[in-house]
Amino acid sequence: MSTAILTGQPVPGSSLEGDLRSLGFDVRLASDTGETGALLAAAPANERVAVVDARFVGHVHALRLGLTDPRFAASALPGAVSVQPEARRALARAMAHETGAAGSVAVTTENLVDRLGAALDADGLAVHRPELGSLVAAVPADPQERNEVRQSVLAVDDEAVRLRSAVKARDGFFTTYCISPYSRYIARWCARRGLTPNQVTTASLITALIAASCAATGTRPGFVAAGLLLLFSFVLDCTDGQLARYSLQYSTLGAWLDATFDRAKEYAYYAGLALGAARGGDDVWALALGAMILQTCRHVVDFSFNEANHDAEANTSPTAALSGKLDSVGWTVWVRRMIVLPIGERWAMIAALTALTTPRITFYALLAGCAFAATYTTAGRVLRSLTRKARRTDRAARALVDLTDSGPLAEYLTRFAGRLPRIGPALVAFVAGAIVVTSAALAPYGSWWPVLGAAVYVLLSPAALARPLKGALDWLVPPFYRAAEYLTVLVLAANADVNGALPAAFGLVAAVAYHHYDTVYRIRGNAGAPPHWLVRAIGGHEGRTLLVTVLAALLAASQFKVALTVFAVAVALLVLAESIRFWVSTGAPAVHDEGEPA
Asked: Model-level pTM?
């Protein structure tokens, strides 16, 4: 249990002690500075501790936001400060300074808490101070002011504010108007029954897997049930984040589950649709794999652009200025959010088309919608990059290299990279990818031309490592390599023209895509890329591409299918084992994504 130390003389009629107990604090009373220091030293070192001015008046949810958020080592409100175990030493130093400055253990504690917060800031600790909005948090100086603050507290519905703040600040049209108006109440219902966000996230995954199973039946009732269950899975997907914000139940494991399960649900559903179509005699595995590749590459574009520019110093471009103006007009905001086909709109479309049409039509519509969205967003970002003078940091360049996922072959060839032409890495990546994909697409199965194309691809791969990726369009390097690798696997499996090759390719791309998503969320959490041994063990993008082309040249079509399956299982086992080890470890970052809808 966390400890809260109330400093100063208790105020008659105050509900503060009860409010703190309702938030899970074991409350201790201290009448002076010396007693506060003694209680702070006696509090268990592995628990959160808060110091609160006994005169504090405010909403319970304000205290919850300021004292219990697990994402921050230290947080503060007017009259309240809270630290987690990793910041206890800094608070102890601040408290020791106050005790020493007092010169006596009997000195009153007036304004002690605010001085402690200022001392933490001066010590270099990042103290989180939450945006309270209409919530009240104050330390009245006299009875009249206290009465006025109490009236302000009564004038604002604490629970209504808490429900509103449970909803993500920025979301898609479908989510905002068709899901969140009632999912927030489901989140509150879950909170009052002790359910955790991780349990809701798991329920969402299970529901989506059942939906995929229904789609795999290939029957009209199965398709209708699949569409309805997919929508319900999305409701639960919104609920888990709202529950986390409503009850401040953020966790490292929860961040990992939420980040990866969305992709697992969507891609499992694609596989279910493909299986259902196959039962009806329609082979759409190539479309399913194409949809997964397109969606994954869209996300890589998003991640790369954001990582390249989130800490870059740059002048605002005309394109960005126009975008800002459009975002100032209500209806254009929603149109712009809808046409990029975020997860809410995308899943609603998939669910409706599954129930009413066929898997083939569903995939055609999905591919067309995602292709338009990818073209729109990528073109806008290219224009922004070309029309402003950005100065990217070393961290941004390092993130792009990590997202590139270069393996041992590229690293070895880097020592000879000085002989490469002095052209942009993005252009090199595009040309290299075009060569290997085109050679695979034009040559018959079993030809060595794709191997030659892959060899050129490997020889050009050091372009991403030879120089820092700080150019205007260098953020395109990772998505170009992703598209080249994934499309090469798709084309070779399609050319094999044997039953089971495309499902095996789907599994391989899914395993590799998981590795790339895992890399993204580690970088977002400032934890760096996956360990170097893992990247080397699974070959890097250039090694995997070369291996797949060699297998296609050496093996018969039926053997190639088996080889793809074995390769997919091996990659999946390696990346999942390392990912699980990392995300359940105590050192993993608690990534809480409030950014663009996925």
From this structure: 0.89
